[in-house]
Amino acid sequence: MAWRSSPNRPTASPQPPDRPGCHQETAIARQPLTAAQRDQNRTRGSVRAKVEHVFRVIKCQIGYRKVRYRGIAKNGARVFTLLALANLYLARGKLRSARGRRGAKAPLPRRGRTAVPCTDSET
User: Fold this and answer.
1) Alpha carbon of 63 to those of 52, 74, 86, 88, 91: distances in Å?
2) CB under 8 Å to 96, separation ≥6 — which residues?
3) Of 86, 93, 96, which is closest to residue 50 (Cα–Cα)?
4) What pTM was computed for the model?
5) Spatial distance between the Cα atoms of 67 and 104, rounded to a whole number of angstroms
């Protein structure tokens, strides 16, 4: 097991590779974040929250945790459908407010035959 202690063995660095936009800035010991770093973190966090909320809805509200092998097309269709449902679930407040201020139900347009009230004389 000499290879474990060899000096040529690469060691894992505690920080991820430095790529712009890949991780949030952290404060160095005893130095607070600068205003620019705080603004960057807020921007990244808001984008991350928008993405993560959709997956929370899919996992917690809809219960989609595991994927069974059904073929790529079927699994893809199911995921796209769940993403659409999650977007509708997250937008339900805006959709409700579009109906009216107090959430009153607007009458829906009828399709096909119109309902005629039944009277006792017709029976």
Assistant:
1) 15, 18, 11, 16, 19
2) 103
3) 86
4) 0.51
5) 39
Q: What's the CA gap between 25 and 44, in Å, rounded? A: 10
pLDDT tens digits, residue range 34-64? 899 899 999 999 999 988 989 999 998 888 8
Give the DSSP letter of residue 116.
Answer: -
The CA distance from 10 to 19, in Å, is 20
All structural domains of the chain with their residue ranges: 34-101
What amino acid occupies position 81? T
pLDDT in tens, 5-41: 556 655 555 555 556 656 677 777 778 888 998 999 9
